[in-house]
Amino acid sequence: MIQNNSLYPPDPAQPETIAFAQSLRTLIAFQTNEDIDYVNTSLPNVVGKGAGCGERSASTTTPCTDGATFLKMLDTGIYPLGKDDSLRAQYIEVFAPNVNAFPEATERAHLELTSPHDRECCGEVSCRECNRCPDPASICNANY
Q1: Based on CB atoms within 10 Å of each CB, which residue in 9, 12, 35, 84 is the most buried?
Q2: Range(s) of the domain holding residue 56
Q3: How many C-alpha atoms does 72 have within 13 Å on its Cβ side?
Q4: In angstroms, how far is the first alpha carbon of the chain from the final one?
Q5: How far apart are CA 44 and CA 18, in angstroms?
Q6: Does residue 56 sit within a domain?
């Protein structure tokens, strides 16, 4: 397993990680970046890490403020070469502050990672009829 620990929503997955996984014929996984420090308001002395949603090369950190951007970051890791390519991550590591802030995006990414994928079915019938098609634009997540 090869893992990269630096997903950023506006940037593609690291090409070196993809190349190593392909050349070694091994599995691939990703983790969000750890650019943001979060202070637990219940336990002020506890600081945790979480992902920022800015660019990899930015000199300042940008907190994630919406689920769509956070999901875009997760999708970059789930589908490192795009949704039409067969390369898919085995898992995505995320941090509690982001999961708590964006539960719907986290659940959608989880469903994308864990549901069977049948591209022909996805193109021919709706998710509700297929029960296997992880179409992010669909609202039928309950059937995955």
Answers
A1: 9
A2: 2-114
A3: 15
A4: 26
A5: 39
A6: yes
Encoded tokens for 129: 């009829």
Q: Is 81 in contact with 87 (CB distance < 8 Å)? A: yes
Q: What is the pLDDT of residues 74-104, one digit of tens each?
A: 999 999 999 889 899 999 999 988 999 999 9
- DSSP-derived 3-state class of residue 36: strand
Residue spans of beta strands (DSSP E) within 14-57: 28-32, 36-39, 47-50
65 in any annotated domain:
yes
Q: Would you say residue 119 lies in a domain? A: no
d(C-alpha 46, C-alpha 82), whole Å: 37
- The residue behind tokens 């070469």 is 81
pTM, full prediction: 0.75
Both tokens assigned to 76: 């970059």
Q: What is the pLDDT of residues 121-144, one digit of tens each?
A: 444 444 444 444 454 444 344 333
pLDDT value at residue 24: 94
Contact (CB, 8 A) for 40 and 30 = no
Residue at 121 is within a domain = no
Domain count, the chain: 1
